[in-house]
Amino acid sequence: MVETFRMIGENVVGYSLNNVSDGIILLMGIVLILILIVSVFALGVQIVLAIKYHKYNKKENSLKMTGCDIARKILDDNGLQHIKVKTSGSFLFGNSYSHYFKKIRLRRLTWKKSSVTSLAMASQKSCLAILDKEDDPDMRIRVRLTPIIYFGPIAFIPLVIIGILIDVLIIQSQSVVFTLAFTVLGLLIYIISFILSIKVLKTEKKAQNKAYEVLKNSNMATDDELVMIKELFKLYNIQYINDMIIALLELIYRVLQIVANVQQNSSTSND
After folding, report:
1. Tell me: the pLDDT tens digits for 26-44?
2. How many CB atoms lie within 10 A of CB 268?
3. Distance of alpha carbon 5 from alpha carbon 11, whole angstroms
4. CA geometry: angle at 13 spanning 245 and 35, to 5°?
5. From residue 18, how far is each of 79, 154, 261, 268 by CA, in Å?
6. Cβ(132)–Cβ(143) below 8 Å
7. Three-state DSSP string of 212-266
């Protein structure tokens, strides 16, 4: 099995791994298998979510109100007239709430359509703003640590590159001490970001539950619509968890690749 993993690993990285320890090769193989399994499951969830999203986005909500109007009503009813509702066609922001810009962003189709999907997304993002106003403890932590949560994952590669440049250009050593040190630092930042992402999911679920209550108590959604909305929220949560797991597994695999490369180079240098 180890030799099979070694062969697969060599095809992935593009160089020989003969001098890499069996333990590292085995871990790389296991992580690759996990990435494949989770990715297949995630793809299935994404397909189901896309189908449901499209289906409910074609079904007009009982209020006959657009996502923009729904968000505006919920915000105004809760004393949040200062929060703006804007459209966003980008994948970077999508449907989101920004504490710093005091703004709710809705994708164009959500923003302008009077659909069940619009009802679900607009109400949930509006309820994030309500949680923020109520100084919810989880929301407070999320707001304060937003830079780490969203920029922590993209810091890994730059830190590794910095470590490599220090070793190659400044230290000019074969020991790759700074490469490993900055890799560990990047990994720690990522792990912290990963843990904090769980807090993001917790606030998203809180906002979902609040949106469900707001829509039900104010008669803004029928019983059938509430069932559809719950279904959408559940799929979004599963997708979020899948994305977190895949990102973490991919990072672990990158770290194992770096360790394997160090082992291979160290052995070659000694020869």
Report:
1. 788 888 899 999 999 999 9
2. 12
3. 10
4. 20
5. 66, 31, 11, 10
6. yes
7. HHHHHHCCCCCHHHHHHHHHHHHHHHHHHHHHHHHHHHHHHHHHHHHHHHHHHHH
CA-derived radius of gyration, the chain: 23
Overall size of the chain counted in residues:
271
Other CB atoms within a 10 A radius of the CB of residue 127 amount to 27
Alpha-carbon distance values, 207 to 103, 112, 117 (Å): 16, 22, 16
Q: Is the CB of residue 67 less than 8 Å from the CB of residue 96?
A: no
In a domain, 202, yes or no: yes
According to DSSP, the β-strands at 103-106 and 84-87 are: parallel
Residue 239, domain member (yes or no):
yes
Count of domains for the chain: 1
CA pair distance 186, 251, nearest whole angstrom: 10
Range(s) of the domain holding residue 184: 2-59+135-270
What's the Cα-to-Cα distance from 159 to each of 96, 132, 188, rounded to whole Å? 29, 33, 11
pLDDT in tens, 167-214: 777 766 555 677 778 878 877 887 887 777 888 899 999 999 999 999
Q: What is the DSSP letter of 24?
A: H
**Cα torsion at 234, 240, 241, 245 (round to 10°)?**
160
Residue type at 247 in one-letter notation: A
- Which token pair is 177? 């001490």
Structure tokens at 140: 């407070």
Amino acid at 254: R
Domain for residue 142, yes or no?
A: yes
Angle at 49 (CA atoms; ends 44, 52), nearest 5 degrees = 130
| 144 within some domain | yes
